[in-house]
C-alpha cells in the first residue's frame, strides 16, 4: 500500500562515509526508484524524504546526505546529534573507505548526545570485478 495522508512518525537518518562511496546515489535510488549515474559531490549536507507504510502507519524517513570530504566534516557533524540512526556507507571496491569505518564510528559516537543505531552498508557490490577487498 502506498502511504496516504500525513506521516504518523518522522525519523531522521543520516548517511555518512568517505567521499565517493555512493551515499547520494543510494539515497536517490531509494527515494526516486532510479539509479542516477551523474550525481555530483554533495557540498555540505542535502536531504530527501521518503514516506513508507509500516503496520498501517505512514513513516517519513528524512534521509540526510552528508559530504564525505574532510573540509565539510565540521559542518556535517551537527546533523548526527539529533538523528534517529546512521547508515555508514563504504565502497566495496575501495579498501581505504572500509578501513575508515572505525574512524567514522568513533566520530559519530563521540558527537551524539544519545546512543543511536549505526548500520554499516557495503555499497557498489555490483562492481565486484573491481573490488580491492
TrEMBL record:
UniProt xrefs under Gene3D superfamilies? P-loop containing nucleotide triphosphate hydrolases
Q: Does the keyword Glycoprotein apply?
A: no
**Origin: domain of life:** Eukaryota
Under InterPro entries, the record lists: P-loop_NTPase, Rab, Small_GTP-bd, Small_GTPase
GO MF term list: GTP binding; GTPase activity
Q: Which UniProt keywords apply?
A: GTP-binding, Nucleotide-binding
- The signal peptide annotation in the UniProt record is none
Organism, as annotated:
Homalodisca liturata
Descriptive protein name: Uncharacterized protein
